[in-house]
Design goal:
- With about 500 residues, the protein is of the alpha/beta class.
- It contains 16 helices and 24 strands.
- The strands form four sheets. An eleven-stranded mixed β-sheet has the order 9-8-7-10-6-11-12-13-14-15-16, sandwiched between helices. Strands 17-18-22-19-20-21 form a six-stranded mixed β-sheet, sandwiched between helices.
- α4 crosses α10, α10 runs antiparallel to α11 and α12 runs parallel beside α13.
- The longest helix is centred in the N-terminal third of the chain and has 16 residues.
Length: about 500
């Protein structure tokens, strides 16, 4: 594709070369190590694998063209290579990557989910109900990777739930070419703030909730909220929002006439009442447009019902049959790492959940306490190089809802693991709940399972379905569920 076509309509200045005579044949990338002859290299300031300092290596690897911003000092290079300056490389990258792949988002139903909690759960639910009710071929892009049904689409290892725009557009192109009709995407606050979701042509944007998290990235709750709200400022055609959340309730004013609401506690377009919760799931009555539908999901808790409402509302807005969607809810499989559970041979219930914020931990433990027949034992920690203000609060929440806490490492990253535990421990101590601490996560899980008796519930929180643990700069293989099953003997 000609570079001139990729740049059409963008604010840009040609520093050298001829965009009309330059063809991009090997994709777009921020990562200099992935530059091949014919590629377009976008020099994004601050990007670890690229940036302005990587322009010379990109040219040496055969880049057909380079996009830079005003901060870039160009090295000497081949005079025939086209160099383009733009006001913001991330904004430009989203446009050129989308165009290079033929704007694939326009050719599928696109659903994007944002909010502090529930993004992964809703993405799995949307895929499940469309597959179960209609046999639909649906793509999923998020925390657990990218897949079409059970088929993973291989990508370079990354911990980004929302991929960078060149990777995201590549994935969307792959999904379109493989006959996918709908795609559901987790849209994180940083993904939205850094323009990764731009030019994906979202049909339905879902807002789940907002609570404290990611203050290490955004600094304040106001900035965190505003990053989430970017999805509803021109990036989606229609919004499905949680009317029980104050932020969600305000989105209607941002998109008049294009908002559908769901709620448990307030009036909404889709509402749930008569909740009955046990260890196996939740039954409820769904209300929509003056009609009621008996419904059930294989996951306990009010938060799970809220996710189910968001799922049904979004799919119905896209034109799918409501009775079929509701019927499919009960047949959904367990979501990996989201209230995923098994029972040991000795009768202990083990639950693995991604809860890693104060709000999500409080909701998960509150749900467990509501049906647990005996003790609740909680294994958890807090991530390193992340918001430190929530650590003692999460300790207090765990202590309040548990009979025993086992404090351990989450993803310590570059921090001293013992130092993180030291910051969490005062919160548990304030509740008077007994606790043990083990930096080694496997040892912590083993201790909890050894201490648990029949009918006790062991919650392993914080990492969900993550297949690794981040220690220093290493991603070490580690699965909470696989570890718990191995220690429990199956």
């Amino acid at each position: 594709m000609k570079l001139s076509g990729l740049l059409a309509g963008l604010d840009h200045h040609i520093l050298q070369g001829d965009p009309e005579a330059t063809s991009i044949t090997a994709g777009t990338t921020f990562d200099v190590d992935r530059v091949m002859p014919g590629a377009l290299f976008v020099a994004v300031p601050g990007h670890e694998e690229g940036g302005p300092g990587a322009v010379a290596p990109a040219l040496a690897r055969g880049a057909a063209a380079v996009v830079v911003d005003g901060s870039c000092v160009l090295p000497a290079g081949p005079a025939d290579v086209c160099v383009v300056r733009v006001p913001d490389t991330r904004t430009a990258a989203a446009v050129v990557a989308s165009r290079y792949h033929g704007e694939p988002g326009r050719q599928m139903d696109m659903v994007a989910i944002t909010g502090t909690n529930g993004k992964t759960s809703v993405s799995y639910m949307v895929e499940s109900v469309l597959r179960i009710s209609e046999g639909a071929r649906t793509g999923v892009i998020g925390t657990a990777g990218s897949r079409i049904g059970d088929e993973l689409i291989p990508m370079p290892r990354s911990v980004l739930s929302t991929p960078e725009s060149p990777d995201l557009q590549y994935l969307l192109g792959c999904m379109r070419d493989r006959g996918v009709g709908s795609v559901v995407l987790e849209a994180t606050s940083m993904g939205l703030l850094t323009h990764r979701v731009d030019r994906t042509f979202v049909d339905v944007g879902i807002f789940t909730n907002l609570s404290q998290d990611h203050l290490d990235d955004h600094g304040t709750m106001e900035k965190y909220r505003d990053a989430k709200l970017r999805l509803f400022q021109g990036l989606c055609r229609h919004a499905v929002v949680n009317a029980d959340d104050p932020v969600g309730a305000g989105i209607s004013a941002m998109m008049p006439g294009a908002v559908t609401t769901y709620a448990l506690d307030t009036e909404a377009d889709y509402r749930a009442t008569d909740l009955t919760v046990d260890a196996e799931g939740t039954r409820f009555t769904l209300h929509h447009d003056g009609r009621t539908y008996p419904a059930a999901i294989p996951s306990p808790g009010r938060f799970s019902v809220a996710n189910a409402l968001a799922t049904v509302a979004a799919c119905h807005v896209l034109g799918h049959d409501l009775p079929g969607l509701v019927a499919a809810l009960e047949k959904m499989p367990q979501i990996p790492g989201r209230f995923e559970r098994f029972t040991t041979a000795t009768g202990t219930s083990v639950i693995v959940d991604y809860a890693h914020s104060p709000d999500s931990l409080d909701k998960v433990l509150g749900t467990i306490r509501g049906f647990a027949p005996a003790r609740v034992i909680t294994v958890f920690g807090c991530g390193g190089d992340r918001d430190t203000t929530k650590r003692a609060e999460m300790g207090a929440i765990a202590g309040t809802h548990s009979d025993l806490c086992v404090l351990t490492s989450d993803n310590p990253r570059g921090e001293d693991p013992e130092g993180i535990l030291d910051q969490v421990a005062p919160g548990i101590e304030s509740t008077g709940t007994p606790f043990e601490r083990f930096v080694d996560r496997r040892r912590a899980i083993g201790f909890a399972l050894f201490e648990a008796g029949p009918q006790d519930v062991v919650l392993i929180a914080g990492k969900g379905s993550e297949p690794f643990q981040i220690i220093g700069d290493q991603l070490l293989p580690f699965s909470d569920m696989a570890t718990a099953r191995e220690i429990a003997g199956g």
